[in-house]
User: Fold this.
Amino acid sequence: MDFLVLFLFYLALMLIGVVMICICPEMHYVTGLVRGRTQIFSCIISECLQQAILGLLHYLFHTRNYIFIILHLILQGAIYTEYTWEIFGYCQELEFSLCYLILPYLLLIINLIFFTLTCVSNPGTITKANELLFLKVYEFDEVMFPMNRSCPTCDLRKPARSKHCSVCNRCVHRFDHHCIWVNNCIGAWNVKYFFLYLLTLTASAASMAVVSTVFLVQLVVLSDMYSKTYIDDLGHSQVIDTVFLIQYLFLTFPRIVFMLGFVVVLSFLLGGYLCFSLYLAATNQTTNEWHKARAYCQPCHPASRPPSAKSHVYQNIYSRRLWSNLGEIFLPAAAHYDRKKK
Ligand SMILES: [Zn+2]
Ligand SMILES: [Zn+2]
Assistant:
């Protein structure tokens, strides 16, 4: 039982860690959280160490760097090495179908293609040259996106649905969010690659979780373990139950069970995030707009409300029919706003 508690503790810790780093789009929370903690422990942690921690967090989450890309590739490499090293070989011995075993590799190849495309593609950077064109793509709703607003950093007029990314220091058309795992902004032009990258990453994690689970179940069935008994600490003969079985499998195949725990948690997290992305695509919202819309809906102190929200209620004017909304992910809207007004 101690083992199971420790294993659940490990899963919970991993879950919290991954949610904090991958899912939470507002990394200000992480910095804020650490700033709060360092203030609490200021008597223990020296000023110099506090500055070093905050400096490191600033570098990780608020500047463009390749740390998370390297971490991403290391994690992916480690999981696939373990899969090839142990599971692939054992499964071949158990005569698993080769198509079934190769599926995670196919998904990896497709995933790496979309990962690279998301990393290197232009998300829709607004420049002096294309500013006028982008201004005509979406209508200004005068609540979240008022007309005649400029970006003080880029000295450009802000097209509707655009946002200045403080990490990349540029304004991005139909800005969704800045993703640290691809070290790039997600905007109108690369959201399709990001979406397919997320889909294939979820599928590869899920396929690996399924193959590993089937392999372990097959082992248990073949060894006929459920019909066997063991002697407990008090010397009594006990029938093998699920808890004993998990402990046995962990002790016999520690790396496989550890990897399985990781890919199962990852599959659920990525699956959840994929569903959220699908919801945003179906309702024609960006993560940035979804986040801002909550500020308009939530009852808050007037001073903390966005200035344009004082006299308006936010309504998503960009959502059309479901298929048109989903299509906009793969075929970014062209400049048609002028034509519509005429
Ligand atoms: Zn800007
Ligand atoms: Zn960015």
User: Anything to note?
Assistant: The pocket of zinc ion (ligand 1) is lined by residues 151, 153-154, 164, 170-171 (CB under 6 Å). The first strand starts at residue 150 and ends at 151. The chain has two domains: 25-62, 64-342. Strands lie at 150-151, 156-157, 163-165, 170-172, 177-179, 184-186, 229-231, 237-239.
